[in-house]
Design a protein that fits this description.
By secondary structure, the protein is an all-alpha fold. The protein is globular.
Length: about 400
């Protein structure tokens, strides 16, 4: 059976990704202070509910990956949108903080089965080893999530209040996301479940385990750095002597640099092995964080460098596992990689807040710089593993193989 046309599928997933991110990960950035002001609930506990939701996302991600591997992404993504709608409705009706936190656990289940990893796995399931260009294109859509949803959330908050904003996003999930998924994401041919006592969808050969562990470690370290930068960037910049207005202006440079780097990757048309994309990503992010810590260059230029690396990393995290482990195991293994990554993403901002309060921004930036350099070392180890053939590299037909011993 021929693969379905790509652009309708990518467009549908792109729109649903924008609103999935906007109604979950980016929601409290705009609504959090208003919720605290109206309810009197501590702001730390409000954001702590998001942390609990992300831990729930990490817990459910491996199951979501296995289900996508067996049944395709269409039913999993549709259920995810339903979970978003249910959680947002409960959020809007929450009479107290425990119910509010429960709502975020429901939203977290939607995050674990409906954000990037699930969408990447869906594309891998549909297009197999040739999914890389589709995954790259989808990251361009995802790059506009905050651009679209932060202003939308602010507009809805001003006119409907935070509860009305949550209900509006719930309605968008039901009226827009679910129909798009059901209409434009095709059914995948179901695969039979693995034989009793086996886990063929996640089975790794002895030589592949070290590669998988290093890749998961890269994902986890990177998640710590990116989540801390997302939450605490303005605080860190103000500690460098910038005003809040200047910090906000410089922070807006990250988004365009992410999209610009992704456009360059799209223009390259997957001609290189994705290990090169990962290498460029962690190298640029490490350079940006080390320079920000050292104060050696203008912060604006540093943030452009960091943002470009962050933009490339979103592509590498989706494409490299596909090439290394093949399309049959891709969805399930992507879910396993996401579990520690999402947990780190949930816990790191709270740890960084403690570090900023007790040791200062310099110490926090130093820790981020060390983590970024550790990422570089891990990618170097990954190169060595691939050149020794620890995991089979499966480049697409127009993709250059690894040099000097990389298998392709």
């Amino acid at each position: 059976m021929s693969a379905p046309r790509r652009w309708p599928v990518i467009s549908a997933l792109g729109v649903t990704q924008i609103f999935a991110w906007g109604c979950s990960y980016y929601l409290l950035t705009v609504l959090g202070p208003s919720i605290a002001a109206e309810t009197g609930w501590p702001l730390a506990w409000i954001f702590g509910s998001l942390t609990a939701g992300m831990l729930a996302a990490g817990a459910v991600a491996p199951l979501a990956g296995r289900l996508i591997g067996r049944h395709g992404g269409r039913p999993v993504l549709a259920v995810s949108s339903g979970l978003f709608a249910a959680g947002l409705t409960l959020l809007a009706a929450a009479p107290n903080l425990p119910v509010f936190a429960l709502a975020w656990l429901v939203i977290g289940l939607g995050m674990g089965s409906g954000l990037y990893d699930a969408a990447f796995a869906t594309l891998g399931r549909l297009y197999g080893a040739d999914a890389r260009p589709s995954i790259t294109a989808l990251t361009l859509w995802g790059g506009f999530a905050s651009t679209v949803c932060w202003p939308l959330s602010a507009f809805l908050l001003a006119h409907l209040g935070w509860r009305g904003t949550c209900l509006t996003y719930a309605a968008l999930q039901v009226a827009l996301s679910v129909p798009l998924i059901l209409a434009l994401v095709p059914r995948a041919t179901p695969r039979p479940p693995p034989a009793p006592g086996t886990r063929a969808d996640v089975a790794l050969a002895a030589g592949e385990r070290s590669t998988f562990l290093v890749l998961a470690a890269v994902a986890t370290c990177t998640s710590v750095a990116t989540s801390v930068m997302s939450v605490h960037l303005l605080t860190l910049l103000q500690d460098r002597g910038l005003t809040l207005a200047a910090a906000v202006s410089l922070g807006t440079l990250i988004g365009p640099s992410q999209v610009g780097a992704r456009l360059l990757e799209v223009a390259n048309r997957s001609r290189h092995h994705p290990i090169w994309t990962l290498t460029a990503a962690v190298g640029l992010m490490a350079l940006g964080l080390v320079l920000l810590w050292g104060g050696l260059l203008a912060p604006g230029l540093v943030l452009v460098v960091y943002g470009a690396g962050n933009g490339l990393y979103s592509i590498a995290r989706g494409t490299l596992p596909l090439v290394l482990f093949g399309p049959e195991r891709y969805a399930a293994l992507l879910g396993r990689i996401a579990k520690p990554s999402l947990a780190a993403q949930a816990l790191a901002p709270s740890g960084a807040a403690w570090l900023i309060a007790h040791r200062g921004a310099d110490a926090t930036l130093a820790v981020l710089a060390v983590l970024a350099l550790l990422d570089v070392a891990l990618v170097a180890a990954l190169w060595r593993l691939l050149r020794r053939g620890a995991a089979p590299a499966r480049p697409a037909h127009d993709e250059k193989p690894l040099p000097q011993g990389g298998r392709g």
